[in-house]
Each structure stands twice: as structure tokens, then as C-alpha cells.
Amino acid sequence: MRNTLLRRVAAWATTLGLASLGVLGAGAAPAQAARSDCPMGYLCVWGAQGYNGPMLKTKTSMATLGSWDNKIETVFNRTSSIACLYDEPNYARTTGYHWVDPDPDYATHYGDMLSTSSMKLVRTLRECETDAYPYWEAATAPKAGGFGDMNGDRRADIALRDEAGRLWFLPGDGTGRLIGSGGWNAFDALARHGDFSRDGREDVIAREKATGKLWLYPGTGSGGLGTRALIGSGGWNSMGRIAAFGDLTGDGRSDLFAVEKATGKLWLYPGTGSGLGARKLVGSGGWNSMNALVGAGDMTGDGRPDLIAREKATGKLWLYPGTSTWGLGGRTLIGNGGWNSMQHLLGIGDTSGDGRPDLHAADGIWLHQYQGTATGGLRKVASDNGDWWALEGAAAF
């Protein structure tokens, strides 16, 4: 596994199942040791193939290896992190690196000495090379408080849960910061877009996989999230796709769409001051044929939020306009096909600065921008954001 991860990423097809990073400690000095001498939670290395001779064990990253420089041949990664082994000191990647996945039972043997001069322990494979989150930049929108803006700076924002269960806030200026240190893998559905608590800030809704409970995480107005509140006591595992939609009912609170797994029915759950109100049937069936729902904002310019849905069998993209009767109008085809190749579909408001909502789609390397048109359609523009790799197990919303 040499050379940079980015050069190899197009060949990947599986997601790494990673656990959380353990508490780091100081590295240990070399000693005569066998396999049984490597404790759980440590990265252990030997200079000879097999478990013979001196052993170095560590729970911390090491920018230099001292007397172990270029002398590692066997690696036993008993941490819960990925071990990145660089050919150069200080984690430089000029000539390449290896990585070793966590495995409490088996070591990785190499046929000869590795050119290893530094080692780093990370929670996601991206972090061998770069940040855990991808690059994201948005143009400044004409007005503040727009759809998709979590911190009120007139740029569309992205929230991203990484493979390790951390939650990141990407404010649209090329940076990112941690807003959830772990545990977010407990949720199998995450949605945002709109003010559910009616405090003027955009909120996040999360479904707990083990219990089927639905939680509201109120936005703080600065990109962070406040103390969660229970808005669904159980049973939400009976729903498939969930999409936060914006304010369809016109009461100033955002609403929620959910597809019932058993029937394929589409339900509208209106937002209330304390959670969600009595549901209304919007689609009588067939919605299980869609494998993505995106609340994209007011695409048609009529003052009502609209829904984008991807058809599983054809890869087509459909626009369903919101109506004044809390429903959806006749659909319009806005994507002829090929959309199943996209890992992430993001409706995060106006990203181009023209006042209209846009759509973004990530294909595993590139993030593509599709600008909204005056008629509710999409216009693809050139993209130079190739930082959306190694995110197969992540969720961007």
C-alpha cells in the first residue's frame, strides 16, 4: 500500500469499519519481546520478520524514529486507529507511505525492511494525507439567514459525519471544525435545513439506529449544536428515507418528510413548537423506488420549498414542487440519468451567490456543482474540488 492514498482512491469499493481512537500515551523503549508482549491498545513493531528480537511499542504518533529509522519489518497494530507509516520523518509524503489497519489478532509482515521514518495514528484513512473532512467553499449569498446557512455568514454550510463517528462543521470558507467528538455513528439518518425550534437558527434531526428514536439538535447560530431534545419516542426505524424539508406548511417552522418502508408511502410531519405534529399523507405509495430525498429549498421561485428525489432503477433525478396545500405537485425531470454514481447529494441552498438554491453531488473524488435555474432546473458548472475522496462511510448533509 505504497504511494499516496489519493492516487489509489478510485480503485476503492469498500468502507473501513473504524472504531474510536484510544487515549494516547508515551512510546516505550525497545526490548526483547514476543507477540504476547504487545499490549492491546498499542502499535508494536519489530525489526525482523515475525515476533523476534527487540520491539518498539507506542500509543502515540512518532515524527521521528531514532534508532528504529528504516528498520521496521513487522507491524502489529492493536490500537483502534489506522497506522500511517511514512518513508520520511515528520509524516512527509514525498516518496510515499504505507498504512496498517487495526487488527487485535494478526500482524502485518513485510519481506524486507520498510523505509519507515515516522508513524502516525489516525482515526480515518484520509488523515494519513489531509484533514478528516473535505474542502468546501461557497460564494456569498445576497442575503443573510438563507436556507442552508448554519452560522449566518451568508455562505452555505455543510455538516459531515466521518467514518469514526465525529461531526464536522464546514462553514463554506475552506475550513472545518469539530462540533461532535464522537458517537454520531449511532444515527442511521441525519437531516438538516430549516428552523424546527423557531429560534431563527437551523437545526439538525437525527434518528437513533438502536432505538428508533428521533432527536432534535438545535443550532446555536455559530455552526454548533445545543442540547438535544426527544421529538420521536420510537418507531422511526419503520421509516426509510428522511428529509428535512423547510417550511411547507407556512407556519414559520420547518417540516419533515419520511418514507414508510412497508408501504412506500410518503408522510409529511409538520414542525411544531415542541417537535412534530400529526402527520399528513403526501404520497400514497411508490416512494420506496427512490434511494435519495433532498430538501433543496425553493427551486422554482414560488416561495415554497421543493423536493428532489433520485430514482433507484434509472438514476434519474426528479423535482417535486411544494404546493399551498401541504403537498407536492407534478414532478419534473431535472436529471436524465447517471445520478446513482453519486455518493453524496447535497441541497444546501445558494452556493453560487445568485440567490437561487443549488445542488452538489460527490462521485467519490470530485464534488460537482449544479446551479439552480429560474425554472427549477439544474445547470452543471465546471468543478475543481477534487477533495471528496475516501468518504464512502461518511454522511454529508
UniProtKB/TrEMBL annotation:
Pfam families registered for this protein in UniProt: FG-GAP_3, Inhibitor_I36
Extent of the signal sequence: 1-33
Superkingdom as given in the UniProt entry: Bacteria
Alphabetized UniProt keyword annotations: Signal
PANTHER family noted in UniProt: ATP_GTP-BINDING PROTEIN, SENSOR KINASE-RELATED
Annotated protein name in UniProt: VCBS repeat-containing protein
